[in-house]
Amino acid sequence: MTATLPSRRRASLSTIWQDSLTVFWGDWLDLRARVAQVAASGLISPLIYIVAFGLGLGSSIQPGTSISSDYGSYLEFILPGMVALSSMAISFGGTTFSICGERLFSKTFEEMLLLPVHPLALHLGKIMAGILRGIMTSGSVILVAILFTGKVWSFLNPMFWLILILNCAVFAGIGVITGLRVKSLESVSLYNNFLIVPMSFLGATFFDPMTLPPALKAVVYCLPLTYATTGLRAAAYGTGPAPWLNVAILFVLALGLCWAGAHQFSNQQD
Fold first, then answer.
1. Is there a domain that residue 64 lies in?
2. How far apart are CA 117 and CA 123, in angstroms?
3. Residue 3 belongs to a domain
4. DSSP letter at 120?
5. Distance from C-alpha of 236 to C-alpha of 234, rounded to nearest angstrom
6. 123 near 180, Cβ under 8 Å?
7. Number of Cβ within a 10 Å radius of residue 111
8. CB-based contact 11:121 (threshold 8 Å)
């Protein structure tokens, strides 16, 4: 069953926005009953990393050696990365499993494809739900970061939140496309194991990518999470110039994923 309708392609921007809010509202009705569960679901891994790496291994890493002397401690260094990591995991995983549940189990996804709305509106609605999931979880990590560092404004300034929202949008967009393409939950595990897990450790979360050899540095800077992590770190602590390049790269990635997701929706068959 295809979602392609000529009238959808002629929809105005205001209509697309209103329709995307309608799609988002449908997901919010499901999310609001599980706010605490969603907020806590992505908190466990960052807490483990904070204790194991930040408080354990981090005690032997002094600023000025493996990390810049601009940071007070290794724990302080990795906290923005923990925010990026948690928002990535939940934005991707929550969006992917939400769509898979509708497609493979409840069988309600076909009804969405029949809605007289533009495919872009369907994609944007799902992305907004993914962004909300990511913010719910990363908000919990931000609270932990503030408690550990006492730096409230570092984690609440507008630049920090702009990068965080863009990071959620990028990985929610990847989650939408993954959810539309997979044929089973086992396939989701493959994407998670070969994309999300490696990126969690290679996305500059635990190290400064500038210290890497050129070949490995090139690989690390191909990962979206790297730009989110380094951007959040710069926005939180003011190390170096404002991370507008990170913002631009994440924004372009989000736009590209919007196009790809809308195209996938317009040709989706279930």
1. yes
2. 11
3. no
4. H
5. 6
6. no
7. 11
8. yes
Contacts of 58 (CB under 8 A, 6+ apart): 73, 74, 75, 77, 78
Looking at per-residue pLDDT, the higher value among 244 and 264 belongs to 244
> Would 182 be classed as within a structural domain?
yes
155 contacts 146 by C-beta, under 8 angstroms: yes
Query: What is the extent of the structural domain holding 155?
Result: 35-266
What pLDDT, in 10s, does the model give residues 164-195? Answer: 999 999 999 999 999 888 888 778 888 888 88
Yes or no: say if 178 and 186 are a contact pair by the CB < 8 Å rule.
Answer: no
Q: For the residues of 152-179, what is the DSSP string, one character each?
A: TGGGTSHHHHHHHHHHHHHHHHHHHHHH
Averaged confidence pLDDT in the chain = 85
Looking at residue 160, its amino acid is F
Per-residue pLDDT averaged across 58-85, rounded?
80
What's the pLDDT at 5?
42
Q: Residue 16: inside a domain, yes or no?
A: no
Instruction: Work out the number of other CB atoms within 10 angstroms of the CB of residue 136.
Output: 24
Which residue, chain included where needed, has tokens 């993954």? 178
Contacts of 83 (CB under 8 A, 6+ apart): 46, 138, 141, 142, 145, 155, 164, 232
- Structural domain tally of the chain? 1
Distance CA 81, CA 226 (A): 9
Distance CA 159, CA 62 (A): 27
* CA distance between the termini of the chain: 6
